[in-house]
Amino acid sequence: MNILIAEDDEFNRRILETQMKIHGFSTASVTNGKEAIEVLDKKKFDLILMDIRMPVMDGIEATRHIREKMPEDIRNIPIIAVTAYAMAEHERELISEGMNGFLAKPFTSESLIRKINEVMDKKMREDHTNQKPPANQHPIHDISSVLQMAHGNYAFIEAAIQTFIRQSGESLAAILKAYDEDRPEALRLIHKIKPAFLYVGLQNIYDSLIDIEKEVSENKNIVQNRKRIADIYDLMPQIHRQLEKDLHRLRKEMK
Fold first, then answer.
1. I need a labelling partner for 213 at 20 to 30 A (CA). Which of 5, 92, 176, 250 fits?
2. How many degrees, rounded to 5, is the angle at CA 241 between CA 239 and CA 245?
3. Residues of the chain below pLDDT 50
4. Which residues lie across from 49 on neighbouring strands?
5. CA–CA gap between residue 229 and residue 193 (Å, rounded)
């Protein structure tokens, strides 16, 4: 994923750059909103981390320009406000100006990555227009989200898909075990793993996990939802085989 950092303070900018590098993201940095707009015209980004108080052009003015005057593909890039202001009314103001999320300084590495995941997760759901298949059909997957984030980097694609293959079955097994012994832990695990299914294009499973999480948190359909999780678990070998085929095909195409 390619992230644009707009931050005039060198210390804060370096913190953001370092955190993004640690988590495997590519970055470009600018020191004000005007520079951000200029860079957006030249290079593709998946996310913008935007400071609010900057010289020349502040973050709010830059966000208005992006949302109102730039081409659609740039206009729709998610923007997270990074600011020392932490009041709820300030957050509402920033969201009303077109930002997608709010992160108060000082922040932890965990809160930063959590906010990025939250905003990108929501963006993917909004962009995804595939209809749910009938329940008796096998899951339809589309790895375009991974391809888009990779920008042609096969090593990234392979690492992302292999990580999903390695972790998804184990995570679902852990959810089934926790479901019978510690339901709050099962809910925590469902919430944690569900974005991974969206990243590899398994929209229908992602939607099912959202439904399951909601119903179980409300203590509804407990027995039926355990079966739904078990059914997803049973499908994983088939899904893993198809993803391996995708990797093999992409490896040939990218040579």
1. 92
2. 115
3. 129-140
4. 5, 80
5. 13
Buried-state track 183-203, b at ≥16 Cβ within 10 A, e below 16: eeebbebbeebbbbbbbbbbb
How long a stretch of residues is the chain?
A: 255
Sheet holding 2-6, edge to edge: 26-30, 2-6, 47-51, 79-83, 101-104
Q: Which residue shows structure tokens 């009303």?
A: 96
| pLDDT one-digit tens code per residue, 101-160 | 989 888 888 889 889 888 887 777 666 544 444 433 444 455 655 556 556 666 777 888
Q: What is the CA radius of gyration of the chain?
A: 20
Q: In whole angstroms, what is the distance from residue 156 CA to residue 176 CA?
A: 30
Which pairs with CB-CB distance under 8 Å and at least 24 residues apart come from 114-121? 115/80, 116/47, 116/80, 117/195, 119/47, 119/78, 119/80, 120/1, 120/46, 120/47, 120/78, 121/195, 121/198
pTM above 0.70? no
The span from the CA of 208 to the CA of 216, in Å, is 12
